[in-house]
Write a structure and sequence with these properties.
The chain has 339 residues and is α/β, with parallel strands linked by helices. Helix content is 37%, strand content 15%. It is built from eleven helices and nine strands. The chain has a seven-stranded mixed sheet, with helices on both faces. Strands 1-2 form a two-stranded antiparallel sheet. The protein is globular and about 60 Å long. The structure holds S-adenosylmethionine. S-adenosylmethionine binds next to helix 5 and strand 4. Its main location: nucleus.
Length: 339
Amino acid sequence: MARKSRGLLKGNRSITGNGIRKPKSLKPQKARSLIRRYHTLLKDKEIILKQLKPLVEGLDNKNYVECLRETQPLLFWKYNSELKLFIESWTGKQANEPMNKDVLQDTNEMVAMLGKIDGEIKCRGGIEAYQVALTDGQDSTRGGDSSKRLIQWLESNTQWQKKDTIMSALEIGCLSANNCISTCGMFEVTRIDLNSQNERLILQQDFMDRPLPTSSKEKFDMISCSLVLNYVPDHNVRGQMLWRFTQFLNEPKNGFYSKVFIVLPLPCVTNSRYFNNARFIDIMTHLGFCEEEYYEAKKVAYWLFSWKGSKSMKKVAECAFKKTEINSGLSRNNFCITL
Ligand SMILES: C[S@@+](CC[C@H](N)C(=O)[O-])C[C@H]1O[C@@H](n2cnc3c(N)ncnc32)[C@H](O)[C@@H]1O
């Protein structure tokens, strides 16, 4: 029988006996390699699910296992046997295989690939391991909490200094309730993440599924979205995410404008075939945002935008931000946001 691997994470065995280990921490290089692999796996999974959705009635990104089990027994069998096979043959030393895009021609092949991907995610420690790697990446010795820059900017912002009440903030993609945005005392923070690591303090929620506000009480003065947009696998959904910001922000009041803090990996704006800073600012301007601050660090770029309100938004139909080539060259990445 194949040797059972401990995956990349060294941690304690689960006391619940379900085989999932409680992740502890990772060395920086291993954390980076695990994050990269998870990004690839999650992106491939998203591509497959997008193709499967029109073919399997009722299937979505969250319910696909139950949906296949209940409505497509043969496809479920294929998915499940590939998943089990992958787990049984896992040695922990497999090369990071790229997905063969030919699988997307055939439903059977797609669910088989989905099974393999889910098997690999499980073998590498599950989403818990990924979240630990991401949190370790936030550690000050490895780049730190990006909201420190936001607070520095706000502290020197004259408009902000006039505010003597506590502001409301939404932190999307929150890994820790101890980030500067939560501890600085300026905000009452609502924290959400796709995979909460602390459900008492961080709500497990996809921002794209968060019900749109029906009153100003459900809106915010600040949205923080650090290293999340690049995590969203689809360029179209990234654009929708930016649009949704406008629905969650308070309208300007007494000369005060709500704000959005965005962080992206630098190559998204410096080395993409389809995107650059000018295009980003164009999109944001169409949505009624105005750039207040910008800072380029070695690996990431930070922006602070203020929102001029729904009256400043231009009709989306007027502005076709499509996926068109801006920079040519073989070494470019494909990051893009469309609206
Ligand atoms: C790379 S981490 C960045 C975390 C942290 N904000 C930082 O700056 O280090 C991205 C996080 O965003 C979360 N995320 C991605 N898409 C999301 C969505 N649609 N709604 C909520 N959280 C999301 C992921 O679960 C992940 O924890």
